[in-house]
Amino acid sequence: QVQLVESGGGSVQTGGSLRLSCVASGDTYSSSCMGWFRQAPGKEREGVARVDGYGVTTYADSVKGRFTISKDNAKNTLYLQMNSLKPEDTAMYYCAARDYCPRARMVVTDFTSWGQGIQVTVSS
User: Fold this and answer.
1) Measured between alpha carbons, how far is residue 112 from residues 83, 93, 107, 108 in Å?
2) Residue 29, φ and ψ in degrees, nearest 5
3) How far apart are CA 50 and CA 65, in angstroms?
4) What SS3 class is residue 79?
5) Closest alpha carbon to 117 in 96, 99, 87
6) Is 62 helix (H, G, I), strand (E, B) or coil?
7) What percent of the chain has pLDDT over 90?
8) Nearest Cα to 24, choosing from 16, 32, 14?
9) Helix or strand holding residue 4 (H, E)
């Protein structure tokens, strides 16, 4: 199994930026497919962005053009650069991983490893 630890969250005003980091350790062979999910109170966890083993990225429509996902394989670290943040982006953000991405869509149950989550709050 792979262990995932997120960092970089916090509180920011509308229009601001944050960069989330996720460090993977343990069985990093099982982290070729990595992504970010988020969950707001009372709502289901949803996919935000994902990068597969080939470097192909996938984004939720709501964050396209504002968020950028990247991975530093040498450091076993996943990043999410979040720009032009909106109050609707407020949620707990979770790093997730598995050995490969089985489909084009970001599906929660496809992932086998999860971080504990980190809070992102965007105020108006």
Assistant:
1) 28, 16, 11, 9
2) -65, -25
3) 14
4) strand
5) 96
6) helix
7) 94
8) 32
9) strand 2-7
d(CA 49, CA 123): 22
What is the spatial order of strands in the sheet that 67-72 belongs to? 2-7, 18-26, 77-82, 67-72
Supply the pLDDT for residue 81. 98
In contact, 83 and 18? CB cutoff 8 Å: no
Non-local CB neighbours of 21 within 8 Å, separated by 6+ positions: 6, 7, 8, 77, 78, 79
CA 19 to chain centre: 10
Q: 48-100 pLDDT, tens per residue?
A: 999 999 999 999 999 999 999 999 999 999 999 999 999 999 999 999 999 99
pLDDT digits 0-9 by tens, 12-46: 999 999 999 999 999 887 889 999 999 999 999 99
Looking up tokens 């076993």, which residue turns up?
Answer: 76
Measured in residues, the chain has a length of 124
